[in-house]
Design brief:
Blueprint lengths: L5 H12 L5 E5 L2 H4 L5 H13 L9 H12 L4 E5 L5 H7 L11 E4 L27 H12 L7 H12 L5 H11 L5 H14 L4 H14 L3 H14 L4 H10 L4 H10 L4 E3 L3 E3 L2 H17 L6 E4 L10 H6 L8 E5 L9 E3 H4 L7 E5 L2 E5 L9 E5 L7 E2 L8 E3 L12 H7 L3
Parallel strand pairs: 1-2, 2-3, 6-7, 7-9, 8-10, 9-11, 10-12, 11-13
Antiparallel strand pairs: 4-5
Helix pairs in contact: 3-4, 6-7, 6-8, 7-9, 8-10, 9-10, 10-14, 11-13, 11-14
């Protein structure tokens, strides 16, 4: 299950073994990174890691697979694919042993062993290791590092610490988060109340049980910190922390303090290239919180998606915009479906009564119409597949601090949007 330490163990093994191979690659978050049309990006990363070619160009999945077959078949490689959840991902990245030279190793972490089923006959040896919960000794050491910043608890907290970890199910993520939550709390009564809440959670099913325990830390955050947590869970995991800070600062969320609190409580981490990282279980918690908010009033939910084949697609962000009732919406993500809806066009009229959007990600959509006085609260716009011809007029989001057109290959210095955007900054 999520949070049991698969990725952590994989990284340890990868770091120990990588020097024994001709080339190596660790592809994290395959499940999330492969959504939509981004499988090509994973193929580029794999080939780039192995060949040290930073400008790999791939036109299609088949093109990438053929490149792997030709360039990888004569050397010994180590490849780690982290958090795979569908066989199609393995078919694209490592389908057959003939793609790789003798002695190559492919390591996959997953929550679902069935993804291996069709590959067992393709490789000489397929070994499955199921990660177990931490034993009491190791669990207590991990808990102590986060609760007391030492390898063992003080004597006066030893007994209750053992009780706490006994009710975490040996799950490293829960141990880390609860330990961080209790760090600095010296009153035994606070610990006892926390233990009672954890024991109450034990009455629920396993998945709900884990989320309820993590919810203790979420509820300890103040409102701006909760908003930052939900932003990361829903949209910003993997984004540069500096960019997110610009947006949060402009929204009055006191991001430097907030990030420090989230880090201290182990609710978020900052990894390579200064990117925000959140564990899948915590992302699931954040998205379930948002889903519950949307259930109360789906067309006024603060964070909404129209996204194909994703579990949190409820009434759909497109409906929210078109019904002009999303007055409380602060973030939205629209991904183009395989069959374009209404020619994949969103008009200015669609956004008139959605005035509070501060984060907007468009994937494959065109904006059309007069956008004067719209998007007054918009701070962050990511526009993937932005059309070369700008069909929106008076597109001047005055408070925009982040503009990401990185996935829009047709944009050049002659794009019509530049002039409009410059106007609002004069």
């Amino acid at each position: 299950m999520g949070g049991i330490g698969k990725t952590t163990l994989a990284k340890v093994v990868y770091n120990k073994l990588s020097t024994n191979f001709d080339g190596c690659s660790f592809i994290p978050n395959v499940r999330e990174a492969s959504q939509g049309s981004r499988m090509l990006d994973l193929l580029r990363q794999l080939i780039s890691d192995i060949t040290s070619d930073t400008e790999v160009r791939i036109s299609s999945i088949d093109h990438g697979k053929n490149m792997i077959k030709k360039r990888f078949c004569r050397k010994k490689f180590l490849i780690f694919l982290d958090d795979v959840d569908h066989a199609s991902q393995l078919r694209a990245l490592a389908e057959k042993k003939e793609w790789f030279g003798s002695g190559s190793r492919i390591v996959v972490t997953t929550r679902d062993k069935s993804v291996f089923a069709e590959f067992e006959d393709q490789f000489d040896c397929c070994l499955v290791y199921e990660v177990n919960e931490l034993n009491t000794r190791v669990a207590l050491q991990l808990f102590s590092k986060h609760a007391f910043r030492s390898n063992s608890p003080p004597n006066e907290f030893l007994s209750i610490s053992k009780e706490v970890i006994a009710n975490t199910g040996g799950l490293p993520l829960a141990i880390e988060v609860i330990g961080s939550f209790l760090c600095g709390k010296k009153k035994k009564l606070v610990w006892q109340d926390t233990l009672k809440k954890i024991k109450y959670c034990q009455q629920r099913d396993v998945q709900r049980n884990v989320q309820d325990k993590l919810m203790l830390s979420y509820k300890a955050l103040d409102h701006p910190q909760q908003q930052m947590f939900l932003d990361i869970a829903c949209f910003l995991s993997g984004e540069n922390e500096s960019y997110a800070t610009y947006m949060w600062d402009d929204c009055g969320f006191f991001p430097n303090e907030g990030i420090e609190v989230l880090l201290l409580m182990s609710l978020v981490k900052i990894r390579g290239k200064n990117r925000l990282w959140m564990h899948d279980q915590l992302k699931d918690l954040g998205r379930s919180i948002v889903q519950q908010e949307n259930c109360k009033d789906p067309i006024k939910g603060p964070r909404v998606w129209w996204k194909r084949q994703v579990w949190w697609n409820r009434q759909g962000g497109l409906d929210i915009v078109q019904q002009k009732k999303g007055t409380e919406t602060v973030a939205a993500y629209y991904e183009q479906s395989e069959v374009p809806l209404q020619d994949s066009v969103l008009t200015s009229k669609d956004f008139i009564e959605v005035p509070n959007i501060r984060f907007l990600e468009l994937d494959g959509w065109t904006l059309f119409g007069d956008f004067e006085d719209l998007f007054s609260e918009l701070r962050w716009l990511t526009w993937c597949g932005c059309p070369k011809e700008m069909q929106a007029t008076n597109f001047c989001p005055k408070n925009l601090v982040i503009l990401d057109l990185g996935w829009s290959s047709s944009i050049d210095e002659h794009w019509g949007g530049w002039t409009q955007l410059k106007v609002c900054n004069l």
